[in-house]
Structure formats: structure tokens, C-alpha cells
Specification:
Blueprint: E1 3-12, E2 17-27, H1 31-68, H2 71-76, H3 82-91, H4 102-119, E3 139-144, E4 148-150, E5 153-155, E6 172-173, E7 186-191, E8 194-204, E9 217-223, E10 226-229, E11 232-235, H5 239-258, E12 260-261, E13 264-265, H6 270-304, E14 307-311, H7 315-319, H8 325-331, H9 333-346, E15 350-354, E16 391-393, E17 405-407, H10 408-421
Parallel strand pairs: 9-14, 14-15
Antiparallel strand pairs: 1-2, 2-8, 3-7, 4-5, 5-6, 7-8, 9-10, 10-11, 12-13, 16-17
């Protein structure tokens, strides 16, 4: 079991501040435990979907009752709650459901309640009405609040009426000492044929090592293929990764040809499954390369700088663009922000998010002049002045860089850096 990633958040208690440090491990289950994990994923999805169907029914009935304004109907059709939905599902459990832990159902409905709570908060980044879970989703998972760690082995709770014999139930060996004896709800998930467990350890803040203050600030301008910061540039799509993506494209084409054999679907043929395994291996390799790169870069940032300014890009909106979606996805904009956020919290470094409408690309880093109208820079440069896409030219006659072509990305990075000392500039212009 190999540790892959970690994140942190703070919890205030009466005694002291507790740091929740989540460590993600890769699991290596045998055939029996793979069956147990797969069935738990399926059952959690079933419980969530059953709960959502019931919640929708109760919500719609309540909405109609409110429209009638009749007290009898309002009393007969109360608003759905986590407890009401859970109790209804428990009361109507089928015999086969008892072979699975009751906690799987409870935690699934808790997640459903949280999803509904977010639905009434439009400020949430993924705001929207809860949707049914699909068995075709790339990630399947479940949660357990009854998992235990003993002698460096993670044990998943076994239901009393489980179809898997007790003597065949196995734990998952950890490759390192647990960070703490106390931990919260463990998340198990399956992705691209591999199994993982995310363990949120509870650690006292005083036991966490801190980094020395440097008094320095930096900014990171994210671009497709590379990130610019004060000390230079990091390439997030190295040549070795391009080679991996070429193989991915090759296997995707092969799979498209192998889907039909003799006029019939061939999804279960040996050739198809063999090619699919090669494709998944390439995806894992690409993910490992980028994750390792992002981990090293973000660690370097929090070690060297006390203030870090980054753009608050709408990654979801950028992915909807057919022009930049593939580059944005491969450049891991969202992953970079996620990793940097928890590391800044962990090491007590200040992360400054630039306003989504802050014109870092259009603002001169020297004089502060902001381009507008037909002077603006586009993805293709500026047609009026004949500048290239990677050039920034300031047209303010009082600017020291007047009529000089400078690197567009470096200028944008320095414009972001100004927010570290002048937070009053962090707004749309």
C-alpha cells in the first residue's frame, strides 16, 4: 500500500487545535477482498440512488402541499430530512441488504443530505440538484466509520451476515507507521482498476512541523503547458508525458476498432480487455508523472515563500471550450490549486486568490495601465498593433516600457505579484 497524496484542515476544540491530515494509500487486495470492495461500492451507489429517489418524491410532495396552503396536507407531507429518508430505507430493507454493513447505508444518506444542503447554497462551486450515481462513473467508492488500524494493518468492517467467510476476510497492510491513532471516516474508492483508501488522521497542531518564515512573496501565472513564477518557469507537460499521451491516443484508436467483431459487440473479448488494460496503465503513468511534478513544485513554493498569489480560474468553464479543454485538463489547473491550498494551510503560508475578473493579462506590471477596447490582447495577439500572442506592449507613453515588447506570461505573473503588497487592487477593473 503506497501513500499517494495528503491534505489538511483545522478543527478547533476546547483543548487544542487539531489538524486533519488525510493520507491516500493504494490498496492491493486479493481476489476475495476485491469482491468485497466492489460489492461495497455497488451497495453504496444503490443506497444513494434509492435515497435520492425517495428524497425527490418527498420534496415534490412537500412542494405541492405548500402550493395548496392546506394545513392538513402540509402536516401529511413534511420536508425530507436525512433522518426521515434513512429511517424509511432501513424500515424497507430487503433480506439481501443485511449482508452489507448498515453503516454503508447511513453514510450514503449523510452524503445525500450534504448534497441537498449544497443545492440550497448557490455559492457552492458545483452547485446543482443532486444527481443519481452511475455505475459507469470513472470513480466508484464508499465510506466507513468503523474501519480500524491494528499493527499497521487497515481493517474494513465486516457485516455479520456477509457472504464472505470470516477466515477469508483480510486487512490491508500500510507501508508506513500511522500518523495518529485517531482518525475519522475512511473513504475507499476504485479508479482505473485500482483501489485506494483515504485516511483522515487527527493530529495535534503542536506536533506538526512548521517551516521557517522567509519574508518573500511570489505569484504563479498558469498557462497550458507551463507555469511562470518569480524564480522562472516550470513545464507541466514535459516531453516524456507527450510520449505517454501518444500511446494513449494509439490505444484509444485500437479500442475503437475492437469494439465490434463480426458485426457484434466485443467488449468482453480478450483482445479488447488486453488493449484496455494497456490504456489504463498509460493513464496511471501520466497521472503519476504529473502528480509527482505538482507535489514537488508546490512543496518548493511553500518552503521558499510566505505569500503566494495565484489566479482563481474557472476551470469548469475552460473545460467547456473545445479549443483549450484538452490542454487545461492535462495541465492540471484544478489539481495545482487543490494541492497548494492544503499545503499553505498546513505550513501557515498565505495563499492569495486573484479575483476571477482581475485583468492580469491586460494590466501592465510596471505602470498599472490596463488595456481595453481594441488594444486588448487575445489568444492570437493584437490585430490592431500587430503583436504576437506571447507579447505584451504597453501603450502608456509615461511607462518605462512604452512601446517595448515583453513576455506576456511574465508580465501577467508580475501583475499578480502586485496583489501581495497591494490587496486593494484585487478586483475587476
Amino acid at each position: 500500500m503506497t501513500a499517494k497524496a495528503e491534505e489538511v484542515k483545522l478543527e478547533e476544540t476546547e483543548e487544542s487545535t487539531t489538524v486533519i491530515q488525510t493520507r491516500v494509500y493504494e490498496l492491493h487486495p486479493n481476489k476475495v477482498m476485491r469482491q468485497a470492495l466492489d460489492e461495497a461500492c455497488d451497495y453504496r451507489r444503490y443506497c444513494f440512488n434509492q435515497g435520492l429517489a425517495l428524497w425527490n418524491e418527498m420534496y415534490e410532495a412537500r412542494r405541492i402541499a405548500k402550493a395548496t396552503k392546506q394545513k392538513a396536507l402540509l402536516k401529511a407531507y413534511p420536508s425530507p430530512t436525512e433522518r426521515k429518508v434513512r429511517d424509511e430505507l432501513v424500515a424497507n430493507k430487503a433480506d439481501w441488504q443485511y449482508q452489507y454493513s448498515a453503516h454503508l447505508l447511513q453514510l450514503a444518506i449523510t452524503d445525500l443530505a450534504n448534497a441537498w444542503s449544497n443545492f440550497f447554497n448557490k455559492a457552492q462551486p458545483d452547485w446543482g440538484k443532486p444527481k443519481f450515481k452511475s455505475k459507469k462513473a470513472p470513480r466508484q467508492g464508499f465510506k466507513s466509520d468503523q474501519s480500524k488500524i491494528k499493527d499497521g494493518i487497515l481493517y474494513l468492517e465486516r457485516a455479520r451476515e456477509s457472504t464472505i467467510p470470516k477466515d477469508q476476510w483480510r486487512g490491508f497492510k500500510l507501508n508506513e507507521e500511522p500518523l495518529s491513532e485517531e482518525f475519522g471516516v475512511v473513504s475507499y474508492f476504485k479508479e482505473k482498476g485500482r483501489y485506494y483508501a483515504a485516511i483522515p488522521y487527527k493530529i495535534k497542531a503542536e506536533n506538526i512541523k512548521t517551516l521557517d518564515k522567509t519574508g518573500k512573496a511570489t505569484a504563479v501565472d498558469v498557462n497550458v503547458g507551463h507555469f511562470d513564477y518569480t524564480d522562472g518557469r516550470i513545464v507541466v507537460l514535459p516531453k516524456r508525458l507527450n510520449r505517454v499521451y501518444k500511446r494513449i491516443k494509439h490505444y484509444q484508436r485500437q479500442l475503437a476498432k475492437k469494439r465490434v467483431e463480426n458485426g457484434q459487440a466485443a467488449y468482453n473479448s480478450k483482445n479488447y480487455l488486453k488493449t484496455k488494460a494497456k490504456l489504463q496503465a498509460c493513464y496511471r503513468k501520466a497521472g503519476n508523472i504529473q502528480n509527482n511534478l505538482m507535489q514537488k513544485f508546490t512543496t518548493e513554493l511553500v518552503k521558499d515563500y510566505d505569500k503566494i498569489v495565484i489566479e482563481s480560474l474557472s476551470v469548469k468553464g475552460m473545460l467547456m471550450s473545445h479549443v483549450a479543454s484538452k490542454g487545461v485538463h492535462r495541465s492540471m489547473f484544478g489539481k495545482f490549486k487543490q494541492i497548494l491550498t492544503y499545503k499553505c494551510n498546513w505550513y501557515d503560508k498565505e495563499l492569495i486568490l486573484a479575483n476571477k475578473l482581475y485583468p492580469s493579462t491586460q494590466r501592465c506590471a510596471v505602470c498599472g495601465n490596463v488595456k481595453n477596447g481594441d488594444d486588448k490582447i487575445t489568444l492570437y495577439g493584437n490585430e490592431k498593433h500587430g503583436t504576437k500572442h506571447n507579447e505584451y506592449v504597453c501603450y502608456n507613453e509615461k511607462c518605462p516600457n512604452y512601446n517595448k515588447a515583453v513576455d506576456r506570461d511574465k508580465n501577467a505573473m508580475l501583475s499578480l505579484l502586485a496583489l501581495a503588497e497591494h490587496p486593494e487592487l484585487n478586483h475587476a477593473l
